[in-house]
From TrEMBL:
A GO BP annotation: molybdate ion transport
Protein name: TOBE domain-containing protein
One protein family per Pfam: TOBE
Domain Mop: 2-68
Length: 73
């Protein structure tokens, strides 16, 4: 199969939240920006990553969802 183009950004695992079989992983990117990825617990375990580890975040534009957060003061 042919992979679609993606943006690949360097980041650091900033937080992990386990919710049953899903894991929300917060990744800190440059400029104070962060993204959150939801993956299965087994996929997360296979990666062997933890808070503070560096990684490359691969972002597929069709899979991005913006969520409004409280305004910063």
């Amino acid at each position: 199969s042919h992979a679609s183009p993606r943006s690949v950004l360097p980041g650091v695992v900033a937080g992990i939240d386990v919710d049953g079989s899903l894991v929300s992983v917060r990744v800190a990117l440059a400029g104070g920006v962060s993204v959150t990825a939801r993956v299965t617990a087994s996929a997360w375990a296979d990666l062997g990553l933890g808070v503070g580890d560096t990684l490359w975040a691969s972002v597929k534009a069709t899979q991005v969802r913006a969520i409004r957060v409280a305004a910063r003061e």
